[in-house]
Amino acid sequence: MEAKSKSPKMIPIFELTLDGLTAILKQDHKKGGFHASALYREVFKQGKQNWFEADEFVKSPALTKVLLPLLAIKPDKIVKTINEEFLTKFITRLSDGQKIESVIIPMTRYKTLCISCQVGCKMGCRFCETGRMGFKRNLSVAEIISQVYNARFFLKENIQNVVFMGMGEPFDNFDNVIKAIEVMNVQQGLDIASRHITISTAGLSSGIDKLAALKLKNIRLAVSINAANDEVRSKLMPVNRRVPLKKLKTSLTNYPLKKRGAFLMEYVLIKGVNDSFQDAQELVEFIGPLPVRLNLIGYNPVKDFDHPPPSEEALHRFGQWLTDKGIFVIKRWSKGRSVSAGCGQLGGFLCE
Ligand code: SF4
Question: Which CATH number does the domain housing residue 263 bear?
């Protein structure tokens, strides 16, 4: 019987590191690092979709002819851009029609991009719009990378920091989040180093343990804490019933932080729920000797969780109780008050 000739595979460049791309070009096309580097540079450094116009490909017409149908640079489409105060939110429509949000946050010298990793979220935090949507699906690596690509090359923003604080729980889409970080890290491409990337979790200790095992010490870890009392926290964040504070603390204690590193913790202050002196004391006790920078964020009301935002005075008072006990509190609580988004309500903006 005649053997069927294998048709060459599509090249999902938004899912590939430079090494991964080189391996595919070697294996399927008998070409290697030279063309892979050129392709990576055109797509991820320069944001060009017509990579085939680069010298390296003009001079290799046979290869270019083969690659063209296999390599379409088609990031997901931005369908809306909204400016709220100093933040820019953009909505992306995915290939199946689902929509996700990303937010660009200006810092002193550059911009931070807050990205989504899921459509919806399983965690169901009471104070979060995304939690109320329920879970639809995980994002692919390409859909995560598309957000960075679009912010840099379509919106032309100087993105140097990425925080996984948009829609979804990153540890619930662990493999794709880690793979996307590997793609972001490639110096010849997007060149966003791990020390400029923050993963924010609702407190999935299994994810913290898995990240610890990878020994990627430079990635910054943020925990949306919101209460240091199991009863209060379970009401706010149902995940706490599965992973109570003691278990979370064990994972944090065992986490191999880099030298002089610290966890980021987000605390959404909600009037009459977690804003008392006792709440502050419990938080101080929970943090104990852990190195923590605490991001205190005023609650931004969402439907069916009817609490007014705390006053500036209440935020200052709560922050002061913590500061008095030696906790490092990030006092930038007005930033982003008008944006209602995912994890920790995009609070604080952390990464300068
Ligand atoms: S705060 Fe984060 S973990 Fe909680 S429901 Fe919202 S997106 Fe999910």
Answer: 3.20.20.70
Structure confidence by residue, pLDDT tens digits, 313-333: 999 999 999 999 999 998 664
Is the Cα dihedral 315, 343, 113, 248 positive or negative?
positive
277 lies in a domain?
yes
Last residue of a domain, one of 70, 90, 117: 70
Closest CA to 124 of 227, 237, 240: 237
Radius of gyration (Cα) for the chain, nearest Å?
22
Mean pLDDT of 173-196: 97
| Nearest to 341, CA basis, from 141, 165, 138, 110 | 165
Report the 10 Å Cβ neighbour count for 173. Answer: 22
Which residue minimizes the CA distance to atom 5 of ligand 1? 131
**Torsion (CA) 75, 19, 189, 182 in degrees, nearest 10:** 80
Pocket test for ligand 1, best of 100, 115, 117, 130 (most atoms within 8 A of CB): 130
> 280 lies in which domain range?
77-346
